């Protein structure tokens, strides 16, 4: 997949646990896990906003685009 989710990186930088982030954002730990592993097919802007607020970051710190090798 060409979209990389860097929630784990931001959690490490903020020294925050997944459970703490899930509670701050208002989503279940299971849904956060789906986001973290890149298995989510979509993300609501309200969820992205809550993640950015909780992690004190920009959307580009969480989501990254990397072209697949066959796209080049």
How are the elements arranged and paired?
Blueprint (H helix, E strand, L loop, with lengths): L2 E3 L1 H8 L3 H8 L3 H8 L8 H11 L3 H4 E3 L7
Antiparallel strand pairs: 1-2
Helix pairs in contact: 2-3
In short:
With about 70 residues, the protein is mostly helical.
Tally of DSSP helical segments:
5
**Percent range for helical residues?**
40-55%
Q: Give the SSE order as H and E letters.
A: EHHHHHE
Strand content: 5-15%
Radius of gyration: 12 Å
Characterize the biggest β-sheet. Answer: 2 strands, antiparallel
Mean of the pLDDT scores? 92
State the end-to-end CA separation.
Answer: 14 Å
**Strand arrangement across the biggest beta sheet:** 1-2
Protein name: Helix-turn-helix transcriptional regulator
GO molecular function: DNA binding
Domain HTH cro/C1-type: 13-62
Organism: Candidatus Coprenecus stercoravium
Explain what the structure shows.
With 72 residues, this protein is mostly helical. Helix content is 54%, strand content 8%. The protein has helices at 7-14, 18-25, 29-36, 45-55, 59-62, and strands spanning 3-5, 63-65. It has a two-stranded antiparallel sheet with strand order 1-2. Helix 2 packs across helix 3 (29-36). The longest helix is centred in the C-terminal third of the chain and has 11 residues, at 45-55. The two termini are 14 Å apart.
For the structure shown, list the relevant keywords.
mainly alpha; two-stranded antiparallel sheet; 72 residues
